[in-house]
Design brief:
- The protein has four helices and ten strands; from the N terminus they run αββββααββαββββ.
- It is an alpha+beta fold.
- Strands 1, 2, 3, 4, 5, 8, 9 and 10 form an eight-stranded mixed β-sheet that branches. A two-stranded antiparallel sheet has the order 6-7.
- The longest helix is centred in the first third of the chain and has 14 residues.
- The two termini are 33 Å apart.
């Protein structure tokens, strides 16, 4: 595949994702005749924005030996929450405008959560969440990662498409084709306005109060999901080990 073709693909994906996904195609193989690309771009604004004036410097515990500085957002309000006793994980739902939400999962043990979490857990959490008053603390963070899915797909049994036994006659009948690489790239930015890199769009003014709220503080590794409630689809899954990376 010519470099010009790769650049055309990259510019298209970059434009469609508002600059979030860049250089999806790198070092194209001259034998490449086709790319099949799927992408998703989600821009969500919180139903209730965080007040950027209350964002403050704090610390995040990466592990027992490492603490890093973060910009910590904070808010007191009523939130849907759930404590999953079976996997010792607290779940907070932050709604966006519309039918989308972000689930933030704070486990006692990240390895346990990663090994068992499934769509069934998500459905259970959404079903049994209760809305309660909390004082929440969430760091501003950004995720950007790129990796190949060849081994993952092969492990799922999709082996022929990478081999000389691949059959893509429905795509091209005159040439022998096989898949050389499957690449995935994802980004997620979370700030006071919502799940994008956009600046805060408003300031929420609240009355001072002497009410003491229980605290839910995401100051150690946690997982995030973006879900759509009508379809129960999960659009994004990631984990935050170090918000500064």
């Amino acid at each position: 595949m010519p470099i010009d073709s790769a650049n055309t693909i990259n510019e298209y994906v970059k434009a469609k994702t508002n600059g979030k996904i860049e250089d999806l195609v790198k070092d194209p193989d001259p034998m490449t005749v086709m790319y099949l690309i799927s992408y998703i771009y989600f821009k969500g604004k919180w139903a209730t924005s965080f007040n950027p004036k209350r964002t403050h410097r704090s610390t995040f515990t990466v592990d027992k030996n490492t603490k890093v500085p973060v910009q910590m957002m904070t808010m007191e309000n009523r939130f849907p929450v759930y404590r999953d006793q079976e996997i010792n994980t607290s779940i907070l739902r932050l709604p966006f405008n519309g039918s989308y939400s972000m689930l933030l999962m704070l486990p006692d043990n990240m390895a346990t959560l990663e090994s068992v979490v499934s769509p069934g857990h998500v459905n259970k959490w959404l079903k049994f969440m209760k809305t309660r008053s909390y004082h929440i603390f969430i760091p501003k963070f950004s995720i950007k990662t790129s990796y190949t899915l060849n081994d993952v797909l092969t492990g799922m049994g999709m082996t022929d498409m990478f081999s000389d036994h691949a059959d893509f006659n429905g795509i091209a009948e005159d040439v022998e084709l096989k898949v050389s690489e499957v690449v995935h790239q994802a980004t997620l930015d979370v700030d006071e306005a919502g799940a994008t890199a956009a600046a805060a769009t408003g300031v929420t003014i609240i009355l001072k109060s002497t009410i003491v709220y229980p605290v839910l503080k995401f100051d150690r590794p946690f997982m995030v999901m973006i879900t759509e409630h009508n379809t129960k689809n999960i659009l994004f899954v990631g984990k935050i080990i170090n918000p500064n990376i």
